[in-house]
Structure formats: structure tokens, C-alpha cells
């Protein structure tokens, strides 16, 4: 129980998340139905980035038990209304994020959030921007944040994989999403959504953290 969060605030948070999804899916539907692909696809990428950005803030708040005063409801909201879109359960995210809070300074090697973003030379910056744009760093992010045993985003394969139960529920729901997208001919937009998440979203995350923490 989060004693600092009221029932009203809990309801407002839930409504904001549901409203975000409603606006995103309704806008996407209108784009697909009313615009040619050459126009709808770039606009969809922008909408996807906005959706990712807000969800990133929400899973952070859920990680700190700030979405709902009831911890069980907080976990369900964080997992299946937020983390679902990242393929990440809030318990996995919380483990990495709380590890990040143990460091007094940013960009320490074992810091799972800012450690992999440390740049020593300009050449490294451009190399990592390239890796962001081709999705490699996004893949490393996914491997780390879906693995309970992983300690560092830069070293996600140093330990055996261990998934929590919520991940399998999230994966099952995502399979349903994918099948539905195929059935209604939205598969391209489903794939572009996650391509954007693994590339452009990760790139803006790099710029935001580096600019704020240096």
C-alpha cells in the first residue's frame, strides 16, 4: 500500500494510461484508413515515439509503486497496461532501476541504466548512435530487461536467462496482438511500432540521459 497516493490519484493515473492508449489506437486507425501509406507511416512513427515516451514515464512510476496505492493493482497496471508494450514486466524493470539508484554518480560501469551510455571519445558516440539506429542497442536493452538474472545492460548474456511469470503473460498477449494485426492487415504498423521502439526511442533515450546527466 502506498500511503502517499490517494484513491483519486490512483484513478487519475489509470484513466491517463487508458486515455493514452485510446488516443494512440484511434489516431492510428484514422491514419491508416484515411491517408496513403507514404503519409500515414511517418506520422505513425511520430505517434509511436510519443506513445513510447509516455509509457516509459508510466513504467518508471509503476516501478516506484506510484501508479496505484494498492501494490497488487499497481503491478497489474504496470505489467499489462504499460510494460506489455515494452515486452518488460515491472519486476524486471524495478530490479534494474533500483540497482541504478544504488550509485551516487552516473555512468558507473555496473550502473544498468547509465553505465552502457558512457562515452570516452567522439568516435564512440557515433558508433553507439549507429548501433541505436540499427536496433542493436535496443536488442541488448530487451535482453537485459527481460532477464531477471542479468545485472548489466551492457553484459546481458553473462548469466542464464530467467523469466518471471508476467513475461509469459505479456508474450501471450503480444502474440494475440500480432495475429490480430495480421488478420486486419495492420502487421506493417505493428512491426514499425517495435522497430521505432528499438531504434529511435532508444536513440532519444541516449540523448536525454547523456544531456541531463553530464
How would you state the average pLDDT, rounded? 85
Helix-strand pattern: HHHHHHHH
Low-confidence stretches: none
Label the structural class: mainly alpha
What is the terminal separation in angstroms?
A: 36 Å
Summed up, the helix count is: 8
From the spread of the alpha carbons, the general shape counts as globular
Number of strands: 0
Largest sheet: none
Give the % helix.
55-70%
Tell me the strand percentage band: under 5%
| Radius of gyration, in angstroms, nearest whole number | 18 Å
Question: How would you describe this structure to a colleague?
Answer:
With 214 residues, this protein is mostly helical. The protein is 69% helix and 0% strand. The protein is built from 8 helices and no strands. It has helices spanning 7-34, 37-63, 71-82, 90-101, 122-133, 136-145, 165-183, 187-213. Helix 6 packs across helix 8 (187-213). It is globular and about 50 Å long. The mean pLDDT is 85.
Amino acid at each position: 500500500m502506498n500511503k502517499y497516493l490517494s484513491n483519486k490519484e490512483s484513478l487519475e493515473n489509470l484513466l491517463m494510461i487508458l486515455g493514452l492508449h485510446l488516443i494512440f489506437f484511434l489516431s492510428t486507425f484514422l491514419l491508416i484508413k484515411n491517408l496513403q501509406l507514404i503519409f500515414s507511416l511517418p506520422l505513425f512513427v511520430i505517434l509511436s515515439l510519443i506513445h513510447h515516451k509516455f509509457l516509459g514515464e508510466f513504467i518508471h512510476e509503476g516501478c516506484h509503486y506510484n501508479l496505484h496505492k494498492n501494490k497488487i493493482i499497481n503491478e497489474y497496471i504496470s505489467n499489462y497496461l504499460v510494460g506489455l508494450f515494452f515486452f518488460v514486466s515491472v519486476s524486471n524493470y524495478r530490479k534494474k532501476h533500483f540497482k541504478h539508484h544504488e550509485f551516487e554518480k552516473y555512468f558507473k560501469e555496473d550502473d544498468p541504466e547509465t553505465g552502457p551510455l558512457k562515452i570516452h571519445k567522439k568516435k564512440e558516440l557515433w558508433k553507439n548512435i549507429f548501433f541505436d539506429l540499427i536496433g542493436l542497442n535496443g536488442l541488448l536493452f530487451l535482453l537485459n530487461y527481460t532477464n531477471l538474472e542479468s545485472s548489466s545492460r551492457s553484459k546481458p548474456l553473462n548469466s542464464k536467462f530467467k523469466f518471471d511469470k508476467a513475461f509469459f503473460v505479456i508474450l501471450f498477449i503480444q502474440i494475440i496482438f500480432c495475429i490480430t494485426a495480421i488478420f486486419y492487415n495492420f502487421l506493417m504498423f505493428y512491426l514499425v511500432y517495435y522497430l521505432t521502439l528499438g531504434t529511435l526511442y532508444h536513440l532519444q533515450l541516449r540523448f536525454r540521459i547523456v544531456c541531463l546527466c553530464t
